[in-house]
Amino acid sequence: MSGLNAATIAAAIAARVEWASELTDDSRSLPGTPPSLLSIRDGKSGYDVTTPAAAFATFNVLSYRRTPDEVLERFDRLCADAASACLAELKRRRHFQHGSAAIDLLETIPLHRYEAVLDRLDAEARSRLGAVGASLAARDLPLPEQCRLVTD
């Protein structure tokens, strides 16, 4: 009962990012296209009664003038806001159900960019991950699926 459902966190992020004005980048003459969720799934390979430990979502974000770093910084803030709001709501519900006897949940939900995780790896782990990426790229898989598998 004290674990967090990764799919719930992903759903909160998806709801916050969908049509987010913070990520809508207008061209000089036309209104921008708002971001949209393309897919979302949990990391489980089949049905069982456990909550998923991982979830993966893909979004479409069009940018005319913003750099990729600017887009990702805005995306990071939206994700952090969504995760924080989700955790606060779960804590509120838990307290309502269990009162002061409730086990405390995390104070924050840590979110990490792929490159930040990559920076923490030693050379051997980076090499193994590179080999996994190369193997996936050689298969006939859509890019979002390749990204999901590498991240997993």
Supply the helix-strand structural class: mainly alpha
| Mean pLDDT score | 90
Low-confidence stretches: none
- Report on the biggest sheet: 2 strands, antiparallel
**Sheet with most strands: strand arrangement:** 1-2
- Which band does the percent of strand residues land in? 5-15%
The arrangement of helices and strands along the chain is: HEEHHHH
- State the share of residues found in helices, binned by percent: 40-55%
Task: Count all strands and give the number.
Answer: 2
Specify the overall morphology: globular
Rg (C-alpha, Å): 18 Å
Q: Work out the helix count.
A: 5
Number of domains: 2
Our measurement of the CA-to-CA distance between the termini, rounded to an integer number of angstroms, reads 24 Å
Oligomeric state of the chains present here: single chain
Give your account of this protein's structure:
The chain is mainly alpha-helical. It folds into two domains: 6-109, no CATH class; 112-152, no CATH class. The chain is 49% helix and 9% strand. The chain has five helices and two strands. Strands 1-2 form a two-stranded antiparallel ribbon. The protein is globular and about 50 Å long. The relative contact order is 0.14. The model has no long low-confidence stretch (mean pLDDT 90).
Compose a concise summary of this entry.
The chain has 152 residues and is mostly helical. It contains five helices and two strands. A two-stranded antiparallel sheet has the order 1-2.
Fill in the keyword field for this structure.
single chain, 152 residues, mainly alpha, two-stranded antiparallel ribbon
